[in-house]
Amino acid sequence: MAEDFKSLMIEALQDAYSAETQLIEALPDMAEAAQSPTLRQAFEDHLAQTRGHVERLERAAELLDADPEGEECEAMEGLTAEAEEIMDDHDEGPVRDAALIGAAQKVEHYEIATYGTLHAMAKAAGMQEVADLFAQTLAEEKTADEKLTLLAEREVNPAALAA
To answer: Which residues form a coiled coil (predicted)?
Structure first.
C-alpha cells in the first residue's frame, strides 16, 4: 500500500472519529428537543450506536497503527450547528420534530458517504478486517437513515401538517 494512500485513509478515519465524537455531544440535546417519544427514542438509540462507531474507529486506527484523533471535522460542526439552530428557532412540537429529522438525515447521509469511502479505501488496500469494521458501521448508518424516513412519513410529517 502506498504510504500516501495510507495517510489519506488515516486522515479520513480521523475526520470520521471527530464527526462521531461531535455527534455524541449533539444527540442528547436533539433527543431532549424532540416532542415525539418515537423520535426521542430514535436519537437515544443512535447515541448508543454512535458510541459503538467510535469504538470501531479506534479499532481501525489501531490496525492502521494510527491515532484516531486529528483535525476537527468541519462538516459535522456545520451539521450540528444547523441542528442547534433548529432547536433555538422552532418551538417544541411536530414542526420542530420534522426539522430535526431533516437535520439528522443530513448527518446520516454525510456519515454514509464517509463510511462508504473508508470501506472502499480499506478494501482497495487489502485491509479486510478494517474494511469489515467500516462496512458494519456503513450498514448501521443506512438503517438509521431508513428509520428516520419511516418515522417522518408515518408519524412526524403528518403531525406537522396537522399542527
So the answer is: none
Alpha-carbon separation of residue 151 from 44, 105, 113, 118 (angstroms) = 14, 11, 22, 28
Other CB atoms within a 10 A radius of the CB of residue 3 amount to 7
Q: Do the Cβ atoms of 156 and 37 come closer than 8 Å?
A: no
For residue range 43-57, list pLDDT tens digits in order. Answer: 999 999 999 999 999
The whole domain housing 126 covers 3-162
Angle at 143 between CA 138 and CA 146, to 5 degrees: 130
CATH of the domain at 149: 1.20.1260.10
Kindly write down the DSSP assignment for every residue of the chain, as one continuous string: --HHHHHHHHHHHHHHHHHHHHHHHHHHHHHHH--SHHHHHHHHHHHHHHHHHHHHHHHHHHHTT--S--S--HHHHHHHHHHHHHHHHS-SSHHHHHHHHHHHHHHHHHHHHHHHHHHHHHHHTT-HHHHHHHHHHHHHHHHHHHHHHHHIIIIIHHHHHH-
Alpha-carbon gap, residue 90 to 74, rounded angstroms: 24
Please write the tens of the pLDDT for every residue from 58-85: 999 999 999 999 999 999 999 999 999 9
